[in-house]
Amino acid sequence: MLSTNNKYVGLLYLSPALLFVAVFVFYPLVQLVMISMTSESLLGGGEFVWFDNYLLAFSDRSFWMSFWFTVRYTLIITPILMILGFLLALLTMQNRPLAQLTRGVVFLPVVIGLASSSLLWVWLFDQQVGLLNKALVDIGVLEEPMVWFNRSHLGMTAVIVSVVWKVVGFGMIIMLSGMQSISHEVVEASMIDGASYWQRVRKIILPLSARSILLATLISAIGSMLAFDQFYLMTGGAPRGQTFTSVYWIYQNSFVYFKLGYGSALSIILMVVIMAGAALQIALQRRGETA
Questions:
Q1: Most buried pick, 12, 43, 205, 257, via CB within 10 A?
Q2: What's residue 290's pLDDT?
Q3: What is the DSSP letter of 48?
Q4: Please, which contacts does 74-80 make with residues 24 or more away whose CB atoms are closer than 8 Å?
Q5: In the structure, what pLDDT confidence band is assigned to residue 4 with cuts at 50, 70 and 90?
Q6: Is 98 in contact with 253 (CB distance < 8 Å)?
Q7: How is residue 41 annotated by DSSP?
Q8: Which of 92, 245, 98, 102 is nearest to 163 (CA)?
Q9: Radius of gyration over alpha carbons of the chain, in Å?
Q10: Residue 121 lies in a domain
């Protein structure tokens, strides 16, 4: 049993972190909830409207179009990131010089800012000077350079390519840490028993690194649901707002249309959806572990 003095010492050590959470997480969250119940404008003014903003959100066709676009984007890009990240982690699991070099090359784009990488890919996809269009024409895939951002599906494809290039190394490193924590004795015992490489991957590596895979999946899914920079810089919502993400629409309402109260309500709705999705994924993972 810890003495009372030891408990106070523990709280003293925790106090900087608790203060940080209170000031930079809890207080802004309370302010966000309060503002969401007002008609406050970015220019000032406004009054309490209670739940009117939330009722308006449920009838806002543009918000739900942007929300389902974001969900579709998340459902497409998350499996791509997880599969490629897992395969790259398998490829570089051994601490050999070539594997270490590959890790560094794949992880390098992660340290680049998302805005910088998005602008880089805007230039690569450019119809007139883009290297990607020229390469596709040279190898015969395209007859002439393509305008990538005038159609929603082409714009999403371009964004997915840019995001996969940038962040796949992050998932690779998380899953790699889980794989390298697996006991060598377990792997060697399976090899002695005659298990093939893919049998070891399926029966040993995949189950024993499930927690790191779940973590990578959660981070990827949440990051995709909060996508903004890449669409803002690469598609600008074109064509006709069809590539608006949820955060992009919240930004439009809050900082372009000056409806700060309504934008706050949309933020709360999105936060609740993301938290519910994360909780469901964790619950399903725990259920699978206990089954």
A1: 205
A2: 67
A3: B
A4: 74/221, 74/224, 74/225, 76/156, 76/160, 77/160, 77/163, 77/164, 77/220, 77/224, 78/217, 78/220, 78/221, 78/224, 80/160, 80/164
A5: low
A6: no
A7: -
A8: 245
A9: 23
A10: yes
Helices (H), 193-245: 197-200, 206-208, 210-225, 229-234
Number of other residues whose CB lies within 10 A of the CB of residue 13:
9
Number of domains in the chain: 1
CATH of residue 105's domain is 1.10.3720.10
Q: Which domain holds residue 98?
A: 60-258
**Cβ atoms 57, 269 nearer than 8 A:** yes
Whole-angstrom distance, CA of residue 66 vs CA of residue 242: 8
128 located within any domain: yes
**What's the pLDDT at 249?**
95
Tell me how far apart the alpha carbons of residues 74 and 226 are, in angstroms, rounded to a whole number. 9
Torsion over CA: 8, 13, 19, 21 (sign): negative
Position 271 in a domain: no
Q: How far apart are CA 6 and CA 105, in angstroms?
A: 47
